[in-house]
Write a structure and sequence with these properties.
Elements lengths: L4 H14 L1 E3 L7 E12 L15 H13 L4 H6 L7 H11 L5 H10 L1 H7 L6 H6 L1 E2 L5 E2 L1 H11 L7 E3 L15 E8 L4 E12 L4 H19 L2 E15 L3 H8 L8 E4 L14 E4 L14
Parallel strand pairs: 7-8
Antiparallel strand pairs: 1-2, 2-8, 3-4, 5-6, 6-7, 9-10
Helix pairs in contact: 1-10, 2-9, 5-6
């Protein structure tokens, strides 16, 4: 059986060979392709935490748990030692204040000063806000996650089990418009919960590994809450790209032969989707290659 990680490595190679070179929003430049699909089978307990470079899966799961709280400020993430969202508010602070503050100093200030954090640590109505408090034209708030869980439990044959974050009216207020924007779910006759994740834009070297791990963790949580078992995770990418300052890192990753995927399991059954914490997740059998560093394009 071909290791499922070869799908991803093949995509990286395909983008390097056939990708269209483009000047992008960040000014860094990318090689990109449009419309790609990967499939990962979660039914045996394995999860797509990439092995050809170390993925800090706890960071990805903590980010997903933060999304589920509806949070939109980096202060909560920083309190859990998660720094993957700091670049955008930091860039905004430097631009608006004129102060060339170091990232570590900015993060320390966000943690120490609640008033500073409220103003400068805010990301706007990003993922969590849309997932848990989408406000319609009449001012009514909609909790898409709660609705999904209820439907999974009571009407699993529904074709309307999805949530998304592309709220057109609030895009301009977001630090970054949603990349992984639509999650759709399907329950088959064997009681397996499948997920299709559509990602409009994907930084393949830095972002994809976190998206796979976070989506898999969410699938496990939803399956547990609805009395189902995890099935297949289907990932669909719109604009999938490699930043030009990541090309050598990607070549190094492609040169590595994948090792077996690890398994992930939940150590307890929380009362609701809102009650999970990082200690509930156990990953075993993870033996990755060393991490490969790359800078985020903001």
């Amino acid at each position: 059986m071909i290791h499922p990680e070869y799908q991803f490595l093949g995509l990286l190679e395909h983008v390097l060979e056939k990708g269209d070179k483009r000047v992008d929003r960040t000014g860094v430049g990318t090689q990109s392709l449009f419309g790609e699909l990967l499939r990962f089978d979660l039914s045996g307990g394995t999860v797509p935490i990439l092995t050809t470079k170390r993925v800090y899966w706890k960071t990805a799961v903590k980010e997903m748990l933060w999304f589920l709280t509806g949070g939109t400020n980096i202060r909560e993430l920083l309190s859990h030692n998660v720094r993957i969202w700091s670049d955008w508010p930091l860039a905004n602070y430097r631009r608006e204040s004129g102060e060339d503050i170091a990232q570590a100093d900015f993060e320390a200030r966000v943690l120490a000063d609640a008033d500073f954090a409220e103003h400068w640590g805010e990301l706007g109505p990003v993922y969590g806000k849309q997932w848990r408090r989408w406000v319609d034209a009449d001012g009514n708030a909609h909790d898409q996650i709660a609705t999904l869980v209820d439907t999974l439990k009571n009407n699993p044959a529904s074709r309307r089990m999805l949530f998304h974050a592309w709220n057109v009216g609030e895009l301009n207020d977001m630090a970054l418009p949603p990349c992984h924007m639509v999650y759709q779910y399907h329950v088959n006759s064997r009681g397996e919960l499948n997920c299709l994740l559509f990602q409009r834009s994907c930084d393949l070297f830095l972002g994809a590994a976190f998206n796979f791990a976070g989506a898999a963790a969410l699938q496990l949580m939803l399956a547990q809450q609805a009395g189902l078992t995890p099935g297949e995770l289907v990932w669909v990418g719109g604009d999938v790209h490699i930043y030009l300052n990541h090309v050598e890192q990607v070549r190094e990753q492609i040169s590595r032969a994948p090792r077996p995927f690890p398994t992930m399991r939940l150590l307890r059954h929380p009362a609701s989707i809102d009650d999970y914490r990082i200690e509930d997740f156990e990953v075993t059998g993870y033996d990755p290659y060393p991490a490969i560093h790359g800078d985020v394009a903001v």
